[in-house]
Structure formats: C-alpha cells, structure tokens
Write a structure and sequence with these properties.
By secondary structure, this protein is an alpha/beta fold. Helix content is 27%, strand content 20%. The protein is built from 4 helices and 6 strands; from the N terminus they run E-E-H-H-E-E-H-E-H-E. Helix 4 links the parallel strand 5 and strand 6. The model has no long low-confidence stretch (mean pLDDT 83).
Length: 153
C-alpha cells in the first residue's frame, strides 16, 4: 500500500505571508448581481478598460487593471452562488503572481470558499511525474483568520 502525503497549504497556492517580502496584488470580489452598479461607479479609465477587454461580469471571470508601467495594480473577480467554483475559475483566469483578496462587503465565509476554490484550482496530480517541468502556480495570500482552511484543503 502506498501512502499519500497530505498537501501543505503552500502546495495549493495558499500563503499566510507574501514570499520574499514582496507585495500581493489585491483582488476585489464583486457579486454578479452588483456588477452593473460597480461598473457604473468605476472611473472612466476603468470603464474604458472593461469595454476594451470585452469583460461581461459573469461569475468566475477576473480582470486585471494595469498600472502606468504595465504592471498589475489590482484585479476584480466576479462571484455568484457557487463561490468555490468561482474562486477556482478566478485563479485560473489570473496571470501567475501573488494575490490577496479584499473583503469589502463580502462575508468571511465566502472569502474562505473562494480561497478553497483557489486551492483546488492549483492542485496538480504529480505522483507519477518527475519533478522537471513543474509549472508555476498562482499564490493567494490569506489572512491568519482564514488559515483554518488547512483543515479543509
């Protein structure tokens, strides 16, 4: 019988601290039913970027806003009734990097579900693969209060 080691949170892309003293780019979670109001309140530059990117605001979608130098300054992620699957889709849609969730107006339980979905999206079955060719994964900074996900992941 082969024993399979349980994965560490970091193996699933969840971090309690940003690596190497770097900074994590914020992801603002927006409920799908609040998307149109959020878009209407966005700056003209953000509205133009949303239009150019053909962003429709469907659950599971993510959009990165660039800074003046082309770097990611922040992102938005759309969630609806299935935050676990929306979190997985958001993780897959974002470019590789260090990210953190802002929780303005979103319940802590929903944040945890999004983080769990993120972790599920980062999982790779590597038992029978050699370690060469490991692909980079997205990293999500989670607050210490959310670290209880270790028991769920």
């Amino acid at each position: 019988m082969t024993l399979v080691a349980l994965r560490d949170l970091t193996d699933l892309g969840l971090q309690t601290e940003v690596a190497d003293g770097g900074t994590a780019t914020a992801i603002e979670l927006i409920r799908q039913d609040q998307w149109e109001a959020w878009r209407a309140a966005a700056s003209p530059a953000e509205q133009a970027w949303i239009t150019v990117q053909n962003f429709t605001g469907n659950a599971g979608q993510a959009l990165v806003f660039p800074g003046a130098e082309g770097n990611a300054t922040r992102a938005i992620g759309i969630i609806d009734r299935q935050p676990i699957w929306d979190g997985a889709a958001i993780a897959a849609a974002l470019p590789i990097g260090d990210w953190t969730l802002t929780n303005d107006g979103v319940d802590a339980a929903v944040i945890e579900q999004v983080a769990l979905g993120w972790a599920l999206a980062q999982y790779r079955f590597t038992t029978y693969r050699n370690s060469q060719g490991e692909t980079a994964r997205n990293s999500l900074h989670i607050p210490a209060a959310t670290a209880r996900l270790g028991g769920l992941a």
